[in-house]
Amino acid sequence: MLLGRVEGHVWATRKLDVFMGKKLMVVQPLNEGLEAVSGHIVAVDTVDAGIGDIVCLATSKEAAVPMAEKLIPVDAAIVGVVDRVDR
Amino acid sequence: MILCKVTGSVVSTKKDEHFQGYKIMSVTPIRPDGSFFGKPFLAIDATSSGKGDTVLVIKDGGSLQMITGSKKIPENAIIAGVVDNLEIAVSGGQ
After folding, report:
1. Is B61 inside a domain boundary?
2. How far is B1 from chain A (nearest CA, A)?
3. β-pair type (A54-59, A76-81)
4. Which of A36, A42, A73 faces B67 most closely, judged by CB atoms?
5. Of B4, B13, B17, B49, which is most buried by a Cβ count within 10 Å?
6. Of B56, B40, B89, B37, nearest to A6 (Cα)?
């Protein structure tokens, strides 16, 4: 999992059917000091995160686990909203 | 998924037979502001995108197999959506 900051929404009309009704968010991956690292990722939101929230981002196969369907082709999902990072 | 811009399409006659029926597009990763970063790569297209479109690209072989229903396509990047609009409310930068 990665830490990330939700920076925006994505609207896409032409997309795979499995993404219908799913919220797609632009997330900037962060390090533990909440500084930006690497490029932005578009993730499916499973916890109703809002713009500006710091979130946990599951990448790869595990991203599909919170979805209701058995397995959907998704490689990144927001799986938690972070209240605080203690260092 | 990552945001990419379609920069062209690839025409190939002599190719692995399992690519049959899929367009191969050249895509370059972009930041939400539209600027390019990173190297361009090739992805097969599941959404009939066109040159200049901003697209969502999944770089995961397992997801590609699920979307195409084939385990034999020798590729791990697939275009899964065409972006209509982006709303960026936090300027993160990198």
Report:
1. yes
2. 5
3. antiparallel
4. A73
5. B4
6. B89
Interface contact flag, B31 A40, Cβ < 8 Å: yes
The mean-pLDDT minimum among A25-29, A56-60, A78-82, B4-8 falls in A56-60
Does B28 lie at the interface with A, CB-CB under 8 angstroms?
no
What residues form DSSP beta bridges with A80? A56
Chain mean position to CA A57: 5
Is B31 within a domain? yes
Nearest to B92 among A24, A28, A76 (CB): A28
Residues of chain A neighbouring B58 (CB-CB closer than 8 A) = 73-75
Domain span at residue B40 reads 2-12+19-82
CA distance B45 to A74: 16
- Distances B90 to A26, A32, B18 between C-alpha atoms, Å: 10, 19, 42
Each residue's pLDDT tens digit, B16-50: 888 888 999 999 999 998 999 889 999 999 898 99
Q: How many domains does chain B have?
A: 1
The predicted complex's ipTM stands at 0.71
- Mutation to test the A interface, candidates B27, B55, B60, B67, most A Cβ within 10 Å: B60
Give B38's contacts in chain A (Cβ within 8 Å).
Answer: 39
